[in-house]
Amino acid sequence: MNEKIKEIINESLAVKNRVVQDPRLIGIVAEIVTLIVDRFREGKHLYFCGNGGSAADAQHLAAEFSGRFYINRDALPSEALHCNTSYLTAVANDFSYDLIYSRLIKGIGKPRDILVGMSTSGNSVNILKAFETAREKGITTIGMTGEGGGKLKELSDYLIDIPSRNTPRIQEGHMLLGHIICQLVEDQYFNA
Length: 192
Hints:
The protein is of the alpha/beta class.
C-alpha cells in the first residue's frame, strides 16, 4: 500500500509540474487575478458554481474571498450559487437540474460581474447553460476544467484547463490555482 500512496502523490506532482511549466496557463492565472481585482474595485460580484466535489471546491473558494485568505480584512462580494438548498431543490424539481445556475445568474447577475464554473469534464449542462446566460448579460466567465476544456471552452472568456483527464488530479489543480488567485487578489486589492 505504501507504494500505491507514493504513486498517487507522484501523479499529483506530475500534473502540478505540467501546470508550472505551461506559460500560457500561468499567464491566464495572472490575467484572472488582475480581472478580479479590477472588478472588485468597480463593485462587481464574483460567483462560483460546480457539481459534486467541484461544488464543494466552488464553495471553498467563494469563502476564501468573502471570509479571508491570509489577512484580516473586509469581505469581498463572492458566493457559491448552490448554497441555497431551498432554491436549488425547487428549481431542480419544478424546472430542471440543468437550469439551477442559469436561472440564478439571470436573476442576480449584473454586467461585468464574474462567473466561475468548475467542471472537470467541461461538459456539465447546468454550467454550460449558466455560461450562456452570463454571456447574454455581459458577465465575464472563467471556466475551470480538465485538459482541453470540453464544451465549456467555447463559452469561457478565460479557461483554466488543468492538463489531466483524472478527476481527482484536476480538482487538486483547481484548488492549487484557486488558492493562488485568492492570495494574489487579496494582496493586490488590500495592499495596493
